[in-house]
Amino acid sequence: MEILVCVKQVPGSSNVKVDERTGLLVRPKMGNKLNPYDLYALETALELKEQFGGRVKVLTMGPPQAKDALEECLWMGCDEGYLITDRVFGGADVLATSYTISQGIISAGNADLIICGKQTTDGDTAQVGAETAEHLGIPHLSNVTRVIRIEDGSVVVEANQEKMIVKERIKLPCLISMDSEVNTPRLPSYRRKKAMDDSLIHTLTFQDFKDQDRSHYGLKGSPTQVQKVFPPEKNSERTILEGSPAELSGKLHQLLSDRKFI
Fold it and tell me: Using CA atoms, how far apart are residues 41 and 33, in angstroms rounded to an integer?
């Protein structure tokens, strides 16, 4: 069984810095880490490999330093890594990103089961997984909380769909996006790190893709564009109210009314 996990390298701190001139995140100064939701997807894939056999490939899209994320995944137990990187892909929105990833998956040899994290902590759109599946023309399900079994060419899962937990059977190949806290991700293995061969990580560029139309990638393939990114302003102002319960309720009501909250 071929399993492919999509991961992303995200800022390693919530205290992000923004270039005032360009409005872009200053990533090198904040460090990077694997997206937390992707760790649950990785653990799910590795558990399925242990139970049903097969191989686990891992794929990411990003600048050259995103290779570090793939190395960490290999240390955890993945068999092979693919880095999608090219200036042609820069500035991509959700649509162009998901299309680029779908082309990368095709170049990597497809898979029986594709697993993603529910969302990333930097973008938080929770759309890339579903859109990637649509580009590939395969079924998909989000907010998966448990993979029950794989049998008869299908995967049976449970998913949290807002007001209810649903049990679904999805025909392979398919894509599922894992919710948070569905398992306990394992730690990277020092032995695997020392024994790892760099040849297990492959770089995919625009030239490796079947679709050579540049208008489908990066800024050219993005119908939406971010005009400006800025950190939220920190406000330490506070108001302390004193008095009896009756006086406090009156003061609080007046304060909320003055600020047009009520």
Answer: 15
pLDDT at 231: 67
Residue 240 lies in a domain: no
Residue 8 has a pLDDT of 96
One-character DSSP codes across the chain = -EEEEEE-EEES-SS--B-TTT--B--TTT-EEE-HHHHHHHHHHHHHHHHH--EEEEEEESSGGGHHHHHHHHHHT-SEEEEE--GGGTT--HHHHHHHHHHHHHHTT--SEEEEES--TTT----HHHHHHHHHT--EEEEEEEEEEEETTEEEEEEEETTEEEEEEEESSEEEEE-TTSS-PPPPPHHHHHH--GGGEEEE-GGGSS---GGGSGGGG-S-------PPPP--------S-HHHHHHHHHHHHHHTT--
The Cα-based distances of 42 to 17, 59, 63, 151 in angstroms read: 29, 11, 21, 21
User: How high does pLDDT run on average in the chain?
Assistant: 91
How many of the other CB atoms lie within 10 Å of CB of 34?
A: 22
Number of domains the chain is built from: 1
CATH number at residue 36: 3.40.50.620
Reported pTM: 0.82
- The 10s digit of each residue's pLDDT in 37-68 is 999 999 999 999 999 999 999 999 999 999 99
- Tell me which residue range forms the domain holding 25: 2-221
List of the chain residues with pLDDT < 70? 13-30, 229-231
